[in-house]
Design brief:
The complex is a heterodimer of chains A (174) and B (399). With 174 residues, chain A is mainly beta. Helices cover 3% and strands 50% of the residues of chain A. The longest helix of chain B is centred in the last third of the chain and has 10 residues. Classes of the chains: A mainly beta (174), B mainly beta (399).
């Protein structure tokens, strides 16, 4: 799995393009973008967890606030506008730190309303003018298993060009 | 940053990016135990219990990456065909600028099809391997491969290959083969060149390959049948396209085989596949594939008809026109379970099916049960590669 990668290109009004790269084959394979519900390489993340939600495809409602640790977060409920959209989730609750503009936690509910996964951030660091988590943990509550992503050497505004987001770049890992 | 047609883009890599300057080494392994029962004397024994240990090491240092993968199976007919240690991958890759240079034993993927693959000259499989994951049947070849990125969309590739193995066929086939020259005993020089374009939801590649057929053929030497290796040249176009939320895949190959040495093998063939993968609903994926093959061959001398018939069967070209259709569906449940089923039918009266259940009871553990079976004329693809019925369990622990 080391060195493997996924590239998702979301297109307005068209189906997304999604590519999976495995270094042992040194070639990328196009995978259906609406296989978004598949586990991402055996982790607790699904393909849909590693790609951005389309804002226009969802409804949002405020749900007050909640304390996580020593901070107060705004709770936002996100539900898909179209229930036919292929997704494992029928509802998400986002805990947003309005001061640092960080999502501290996302509660992910299945279509029957059961809480199935939680994504939590920890170790907030300020990079220039923005805050980011240095660690993200996805916990699958159904199998009591979690996947942790550690970020290091993160740079923001370093001038990454559009050519970084190509299949060629995916295969080169840079 | 997004282009005019892209609303958002995201790239995620697992592990250290290739640009990391520090030496990064990862060792991964798994222990798999397999218990299988074949409904006929398809392999050496009907009931089999065995274990396979797989070990791989990946290392990266600056522009250089390397991979070594080994596996060791406890018995014949489970895992690899012998109990000896099998070297799966052993390559080193240098990536700099627009060029990737990979040298060593490596998997050389061909084409885009999944089930029945028209392009398999340099990507043979070990069909004796009992495993719920098809990828574990893939075999590697020693090669030097160069990939040159003309730009972000266009890539030119070329490889020199020492073709030292073809398909590893089930015991039910190999026990009938006479001795003779095989790729394993007498590797041949081979190679391919390919130009591939990727962009705007599409990819397409044009490929020219020359080497040996990955399947055996027979000839007559001193009134006795002998195995030989036959030369094969292939021109192919393959690609994929995103449409309707799914991916359309195709492979088209024109195959020219040196038919002078072995009666009955195809002189020219056309082999094509059209497939479609799509997520049909939450946690479910379906795929369908339509495959067609047409072969033309010389007329056979009187007295060599039987040998010609055997050769045609060995090369999977028993009929001048063949058509297969496959379908599969996989559904995941509760994150820890998935069930997959599929089937194949052909115009020649072949049919096959499988049903598998995979369960991940705990971290690093996986348990699978699969039942598969098929039936077809004796010289058909299904009769050659599948027993009438097989059930096997696989318990895997990854470390």
């Amino acid at each position: 799995m080391n060195g493997s990668g996924v590239l998702t290109i979301e297109r307005s009004g068209q189906a997304d393009d999604q590519w999976l790269y495995l270094p042992a084959y040194h070639t990328s394979r196009k995978v259906p973008a609406n296989s978004r519900t598949d586990r991402y390489m055996g982790t607790d993340f699904a393909f849909e967890d590693v790609s951005a939600d389309k804002i226009a495809a969802n409804r949002y409602a405020t749900m007050g606030s909640a304390r996580l640790g020593d901070r107060t977060y705004s709770k936002i409920e996100q539900t898909p506008r179209d229930r036919r959209e292929v997704s494992s989730y029928g509802r998400k609750i986002l805990f947003i730190d309005p001061e640092r503009l960080l999502i501290g936690r996302i509660d992910l509910y299945d279509r029957s309303g059961t809480l199935i996964k939680q994504l939590e951030g920890s170790g907030a660091v300020r990079i220039g003018t923005v805050w980011r988590w240095s660690q993200m943990t996805m916990t699958d509550l159904r199998i009591r298993h979690r996947t942790v992503i550690d970020y290091s050497d993160r740079q923001i505004g370093s001038g990454a060009g559009a050519d970084l987001f190509t299949v060629r770049s995916l295969e080169r890992g840079r | 940053m997004p282009t005019s047609s892209a609303a958002a883009i995201a790239a995620v890599w697992i592990g250290s990016p290739a640009s990391a300057q520090a030496l990064s080494v990862r060792t991964v392994g798994s222990l798999t135990s397999v218990a299988a029962h074949d409904g006929e004397d398809f392999t050496r024994r009907r009931d089999k219990v065995g274990a396979v240990v797989q070990l791989s090491v990946d290392a990266t240092l600056g522009d250089v990456s390397a991979r070594i993968a080994l596996d060791q199976s406890s018995t014949r007919d489970i895992g690899t065909r012998t109990s000896a240690v099998s070297l799966k991958d052993a390559w080193v890759r240098y990536s700099h600028g627009s060029i990737d240079l990979t040298a060593g034993r490596q998997f050389l993927p061909e084409g885009r099809s999944d089930r029945i693959r028209p392009l398999d000259q340099f990507a043979p499989r070990d069909l004796t391997r009992i495993a719920t994951v098809d990828a574990r049947q893939r075999l590697t070849l020693p090669a030097v491969r160069v990939d040159y990125a003309v730009d972000e969309r266009l890539t030119a590739s070329a490889a020199y290959i020492r073709q030292d193995q073809g398909y590893v066929l089930p015991y039910a086939v190999t026990r009938l083969l006479p001795p003779g020259r095989t790729l394993r005993d007498s590797p041949v020089d081979a190679g391919f060149v390919e130009v591939a374009f990727r962009g705007d939801g599409a990819e397409i590649g044009v490929n020219l390959g020359h080497g040996a057929s990955p399947l055996p053929a027979l000839t007559i030497v001193g009134a006795q049948p002998r195995q030989i290796v036959v030369a094969q040249t292939r021109v192919a176009i393959s690609g994929s396209y995103t449409i309707g939320g799914g991916v359309l895949r195709f492979d088209l190959a024109a195959i020219m085989t040196d038919d002078a040495a072995a009666p009955g093998i195809e002189r020219r063939g056309a082999f094509g596949s059209l497939g479609y993968d799509i997520g049909v609903w939450a946690n479910a994926n379906a795929s369908v594939q339509l495959v067609a093959r047409r072969s033309s061959r010389r007329s056979v001398e009187i007295g060599l008809e039987t040998l010609a018939h055997v050769n045609a069967a060995l090369q999977q070209t028993s009929r001048d026109r063949q058509v297969w259709a496959t379908v599969s569906l996989r559904q995941s449940f509760q994150s820890a379970h998935d069930i997959e089923g599929g089937g194949l039918i052909s115009a020649a009266g072949e049919y096959a099916g499988y049903l598998a259940w995979n369960w991940r009871p705990a971290d690093r553990w996986r348990f699978s049960v699969q039942a598969q079976g098929g039936h077809g004329p004796r010289d058909s693809l299904i009769a050659t590669v599948l027993p009438n019925f097989r059930v096997f369990n696989e318990l895997q622990f990854s470390f």
